[in-house]
From TrEMBL:
InterPro entries (alphabetical): PHF5
Gene Ontology terms: cellular component: U2 snRNP; U2-type spliceosomal complex
Organism superkingdom: Eukaryota
Descriptive protein name: PHF5-like protein
Residue ranges crossing the lipid bilayer per the database entry: none
An individual GO BP term: spliceosomal complex assembly
Family: Belongs to the PHF5 family.
């Protein structure tokens, strides 16, 4: 979870067997602390977050990974999060988009409707 955006909420359900995927923009980032240092353990996500329309999206930012089967790379926890056992807390997928991003989208829609 991003250290700089405190309004983001993680899924935190029991992780399953599927490995979480991240886009090129988030590649190498720890889903808990945003560290780029010493990736250690693969991220496991819950069954609800791994199928359907969520299965081909980045677990951190929600961007699409593409249509190809091998698109996106595996997400990893950093060494410190593994040592502190934060990787055992649950599924790390971000389930909301945050108020700053929602405000930006609302402002974008409202300015487009005013221009018509």
């Amino acid at each position: 979870m991003s250290r700089h955006q405190y309004d983001l909420v993680q899924c935190m359900k029991q992780p399953g067997t599927r490995v979480g995927k991240v886009c090129q923009q988030c590649d190498g980032r720890c889903p808990i602390c945003d560290s780029y240092v010493k990736p250690t353990a693969k991220v496991r996500i819950c069954d609800g977050c791994s199928f359907g329309h969520l299965g081909d999206k980045c677990i951190l930012c929600g961007n699409g990974l593409g249509r190809e089967e091998g698109s996106g790379s595996a997400a990893y926890y950093c060494l410190e999060c593994v040592r502190q056992e934060k990787h055992r807390e649950g599924c790390p997928r971000i389930v909301n988009i945050g108020s700053s991003k929602a405000d930006m989208m609302f402002k974008k829609v409202s300015t487009n409707s005013l221009q018509r």
